[in-house]
Amino acid sequence: MAALLAAAALLALGAPAQAEIRISDLDVFLNDQEITVHVVALGAVPPAFLESILTGIPTHVRFTVELWQYNRLWRDRLLTRRIVERNLVYNVVTREFKVTSLQGENRPVYTTRELRDAQRVISELRALKLAPVSTLEPEGVVYVRVYAETALNGENTFVARLAGTAEQTVRQSDYRTLSRVQ
Q: What domain count does the chain have?
């Protein structure tokens, strides 16, 4: 019982207050061919990470984008999931930030000397194609759920989140109908 109270007190105190990662823009575009998502995660590189980044420790940002179909009388059904992972590394010798794509997209390596530019590139996910509309039910109602995670050295565990070296958030889009309304 004493251990449980000590653990509860530790969780209540937690890490010091800091700016958490949050998803500011989640736009779902439904055109005639495919469902496309645009996501911006603010605070993808929190101020608590800056000292570690400037010493050369890499920061990983992972976006998990899921397309769900709404079912009125039953559980919602997961249609597809895409994971996009990026890495931000600071080279101490050349004083450059390098953003590379690790998984889920093919994009060239982005190199800059400005931290603000590197933060913008690592936190924006543009024109992610989820699924062709032809594979979905014509009368379906769908929505998108996005999980954004950031962590130093790619380690996102409960202990890392408690220590302040990892953060995560979730946001869900509005419901979209596939049939056109006239």
A: 1
| Cα–Cα separations (whole angstroms), residue 163 to 6, 11, 15, 51 | 16, 11, 6, 15
Sole residue written with tokens 């450059």: 96
- Range of 48's domain? 22-177
Is 67 inside any structural domain?
yes
Query: For the whole model, what pTM was predicted?
Result: 0.78
Domain-located, residue 135: yes
Cβ atoms of 172 and 143 closer than 8 Å: yes
64 in any annotated domain: yes
Digits of tens for pLDDT over the chain (182 positions)? Answer: 665 545 544 444 444 434 478 888 888 888 778 888 898 988 888 888 888 888 888 999 999 999 988 888 888 889 999 999 999 999 989 999 999 999 888 889 999 999 999 999 998 988 888 888 888 887 788 888 899 888 888 777 778 777 777 787 888 887 777 655 44
4 within some domain: no
